[in-house]
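Let us practice reading a record.
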Amino acid sequence: MMPGLDGVQLCQHMRARVDAPYTYFIVLTALGDTEHRLAAIQAGADDYVAKPFSIEDIEARLVAAERVTVVHRRQEALLRMTRRFAAEADPVRLVDELLHEAIDLVHGSAGVVTRWDEERTLLVPVAATAPVLSTLRFRLGEGASGRAAESRRPVLLSRVQDGMLDPVLHEAGLNAAVAVPLLHEARLVGTLSVGSSADAFSREDAELLELLASTAAAALLALEHARLDGVLLAARTAQHELNNQLAVARGYAELLVGSPELPAHLHEIAEEVMTAADDAAGIVRQLRNISSIHEQRWNAPGDTTIDLPRSQPRRRGAA
């Protein structure tokens, strides 16, 4: 019954602001009849308290309000990160944002993001907030990260598990860890792990990080595919020019090889040039037939090479 703008109208006004953080709304009023209670709930109120009331009753309702608000704030943070991932063009910055946002979301103390090295069957850190975490290498089943990668699901780990002291948490000075796999279309990309020097993590924390990790994995692979598609396009564009130059070099070398006036030592050199041109032309043909590129490393700037033998050839008849 506020003048100018009553409680129900205020609630409607707040709910109409789609860009604002979620506000838990309790209507506290002397109008305790069913009609006014229904109007408040329909306007978007979370709770309705009729006068007279007790302070203890309000305190109990605020405990529930805090739980609901935390859930909404986490969902808002997740949506915000999803938008940032979609707009990010640098995989290094994306991984860094993923790690720091994950730590903030679950109130952690440290964290590490690993990539899955399929050839060495290791999880290799690509971002970490503590030096000790950046030097670790995890095999499947080792530590929180290795367990999450092996089981393909979230893992909660305590410093003392089944009477045994976890060496990674002990060395990092952490009491608990939560780890989730980075998966995309059943492919293991890596893991995200957050540690805490205080409280243990909950199942809700694990589920939240799992959602964040799945979004980040999709964004990382999208960036990888876009970059490799660019490399592929550049290779095909250069293929025509390379073929022309190689054809010229081989033609001159062939003329020299067939010349009876060419000295013997130069004849051998001309044959080597012709053989080298043929080998180079074979590599160019292989580049032309590639439809997808395989790399030996993921998200390691300066340490990435194209593996031509393992890159997939284009199907016959494909454009």
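A brief commentary: The first strand starts at residue 26 and ends at 29.
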